[in-house]
Design goal:
By secondary structure, the protein is α+β, with helices and mostly antiparallel strands. About 45% of the residues lie in helices and about 15% in strands. It is elongated, with a radius of gyration of 29 Å.
Length: about 150
């Protein structure tokens, strides 16, 4: 029975012995080249957010950031496989598996404060004129002074 770690990529040499830094770097470079080939075969509207994970025993594994993109990739998997089979590294690909792995966090935009419109400033000034409370009137007039130009 073979372990998962003993599986070899179809385009890698896969040594089970000690991996030196040079071997790891060459494997990383090979993986990067393979990812570039795969992304070139994927339609442009689907390639952003899609990553090449692995290719073992004829099974190409891709990862994408959302489920709708994964579904569209599954619909076009035969087109992608035929484009990839033209390359020597992927000539034995017969199956595509697509995983969905959403980004770890979404970058939040800092909220942009909209400047006060002239109409709203006029309404605040009008309300300040009808207010009997002196402190509230001053606050409303200060707010009304923040009008955009």
């Amino acid at each position: 029975m073979t372990e998962k770690n003993d599986q070899k990529m179809i385009f890698g040499k896969g040594s089970a012995g000690n991996n030196t830094l040079k071997e790891l770097m060459s494997k990383a470079e090979l993986h990067l080249q393979a990812e570039q080939l795969v992304l070139a075969a994927i339609p442009a509207e689907l390639s952003e957010g899609t990553r090449f994970v692995s290719c073992r025993e004829g099974e190409l594994v891709l990862s994408t950031d959302n489920a709708s993109k994964a579904t569209r990739l599954r619909f076009r998997q035969h087109e992608i496989m035929s484009a990839l089979r033209e390359n020597e590294l992927f000539r034995y690909v017969w199956k595509v598996r697509i995983k969905v792995s959403p980004p770890r966090f979404a970058s939040r935009r800092k909220p942009v404060k909209e400047p006060l419109s002239k109409e709203n400033a006029r309404l605040l000034q009008e309300e300040a004129g009808h207010t009997k409370d002196k402190a509230l009137r001053e606050v409303l007039e200060k707010l009304a002074s923040h009008v955009r130009d």
